[in-house]
Structures are given as C-alpha cells and as structure tokens.
Amino acid sequence: MESQFKKGIIELCILTMIAYEDMYGYQIIKSFENIIDVNENTVYPILRRLTLEKYFDTYLLPSDEGAPRKMYQITELGFKHLMKLRSTWDQFIGGVYKILNMREVNDADILNRIKK
C-alpha cells in the first residue's frame, strides 16, 4: 500500500481510538495487531505531530511496570479534525464501493470474458 495513503488511514485510526479512550503509544500499536500492519516507526511520529498540532493533550499516568506512561487524550480541536477526516473517508470509501459494485457481474462471468 502506498506509504502516504497508509499513514493517512493510520492517522484516522489513531484519532478514532483516542477519541474512545485515552491511550499510550504501545497500547495503540498493540490495538493495531492482527488488523493493520504498523510499527512504532509509524505510530510515534504521527502521535508527535498530532500533539504538536494540538489535536492531543498528553499527561503521565503512573505504571506498576516501571516508568509512567505518556497518555494521549483527544482535544476538541482534535475531535473536529477527526470528524473532518471521517467525512472525507466516508465519501471516498463510498465512491470506491460504488465503483466496485457498479455492475452485478460475478467472478465466473469476468473470467469467461477474459478467456475469449
């Protein structure tokens, strides 16, 4: 998948996850596990940028397992940004589905047309 497109989708996913609940970086990465292939080299730069853009606030949460965790919390500005991205995504994916389902042709019909 093209890198910039993937980063945009991952940004939308991160904003959505943090809108539902405050999360820390590793928790976000684990939430992607078995769904979308991402790693810390993708997630942490997005978190830093979204924080600098004031879409997230951060705070430290004490941890029983060592250092405090840096938690990310969506701001009102971040939620508005999420709604804008979500609207754009919904329009885009709706258009894709219209194209994919333009005609009711099954795979066998397509294969037969190709073989001729």
Topology:
Blueprint: H1 3-20, E1 23-24, H2 25-32, H3 40-52, E2 56-63, E3 66-74, H4 76-100, H5 107-115
Antiparallel strand pairs: 1-3, 2-3
Helix pairs in contact: 1-3, 1-4, 2-3
Morphology call = elongated
Distinct helical segment count: 5
CATH homologous superfamily title: Winged helix-like DNA-binding domain superfamily/Winged helix DNA-binding domain
Q: Output the helix-strand order.
A: HEHHEEHH
Reported by name, the CATH topology is Arc Repressor Mutant, subunit A
Q: In the residues, how many domains can be counted?
A: 1
Determine the N-to-C terminus distance.
32 Å
- CATH architecture tag: Orthogonal Bundle
CATH level 1 name: Mainly Alpha
> What average pLDDT do the residues reach?
90
Helical fraction equals: 55-70%
What summary fits the major beta sheet?
Answer: 3 strands, antiparallel
In the predicted model, the low-confidence regions spanning at least 5 consecutive residues are: none
Structural class computed from helices and strand pairing: alpha+beta
Total beta strand runs: 3
Strand order, sheet with most strands = 1-3-2
Radius of gyration: 19 Å
Structural account:
The protein is of the alpha+beta class and 116 residues long. The chain has one domain (3-88): Arc Repressor Mutant, subunit A (Orthogonal Bundle), CATH 1.10.10. It has five helices and three strands. The chain has helices at 3-20, 25-32, 40-52, 76-100, 107-115, and strands at residues 23-24, 56-63, 66-74. A three-stranded antiparallel β-sheet has the order 1-3-2.
